[in-house]
Specification:
By secondary structure, the chain is an alpha+beta fold. The chain has helices at 16-20, 65-88, 92-117, 150-153, 367-376, and strands at residues 4-5, 40-47, 50-57, 119-120, 158-159, 170-173, 179-184, 187-196, 199-202, 215-218, 224-229, 246-250, 272-277, 289-298, 302-308, 325-330, 333-343, 356-363. 18% of the residues lie in helices and 29% in strands. Helix 2 runs antiparallel to helix 3. The longest helix is centred in the N-terminal third of the chain and has 26 residues, at 92-117. The protein starts with a strand and ends in a 6-residue tail after the last helix.
Length: 382
Amino acid sequence: MNCVVRTSLKISICILLVMTGGVALAQLPSIPDGPDGTLFTCAQAEDDLGCYGNLLDANSESIGFRRAKRTIRRNLRLTKRERRDARRIGDFDSVDVYTAEITLLKSIRRAARQCFRYDDPDCTDSGSGGEEGGGKSGETGGGNTSVTEACNALGNTSSDRHYIRIVNGAVCTRGDSPIVPIYNNGSQHCTGSVIAANVVVTAAHCVVDTNCGNLTVTTGSGLSRSVQSCPSHPSYDGYSEDNDVALLILSGDLDSSTITLHTTADVQVGEQVAFAGYGRNEEDDENLRATFNTLTDVSTGSLVVEYTQGNSSIGNSCNGDSGGPLAVQRNGEWVLIGAVSNGDAQNCALPGYESSDVSRWANLTSSSNLQFIADNTSGIVD
């Protein structure tokens, strides 16, 4: 079995509307042609949230806003260089042409951003001639819940929209969410869950062979705490990934909420689970996203979900989500049962890569893992 650990790789991972600086648009925008023809078009796509803007390149292939910006930036740089050269030789007619092209490219960039922000929950804009996304069932195995509700499941986070997908996850505003990014020398490294004001649970492979003094944790408010100590499970096996659990004991309290650690080994195959993280996704951004799936295997050592690319009602974990939470609902509360450990597929079944993947979480409800947490904390495990 090819077991791929979900470590950092400096590849980051949910707040689209904040990033783009505005509210979602209600009308599908039209993107003007570039100086040499069509650069992008905006098509209407559909998923379990409704309809959204799908950027297409000149070959009618879906392209993320980040790639579109890179393309426009490159064209702007080249055109500005040509305008400068024309100005140097006194060719002011060409200067005027290049200036007009620069203005046009900037308008294309604005329209592409508007396409990326377009949101029509009722799919009322029928003139787009767009393509369908993953359907509108919004159903997740083990319960009829849209992936967008996963943000609310994991601790006072709220859903904006899943333009970009942990893999196929809902974008979330962080607020005081207990799901926090872990940084190593300032670079996004892993994900963790706050189980006490100064205690974060994560994966052992996130801290083994790592200088704890280089690790920091940051909350949604921007408060950052250094790591005082980072004990890992004494029986952690880096080869088998057994007991892949660690704790970050912080230098001070966080201002986030906490997630309740479930201490009863009652989790069953077929249950709906929620998970979240700051790991690798389609757009390689650095934000929180969350999703749902269904448990396909439960053992003392691990909790397992399976993911097939193109299934819009479930998601997957990836690099950088390591240590992040797996939660199940008990008595109306989403409680913590796992920490992301590893998966089979090198690229997590992201678009353009493998068609499916299997992801595993360390089972925090096992007696061994609960004892480890009890031995290193106070008042968390009764």
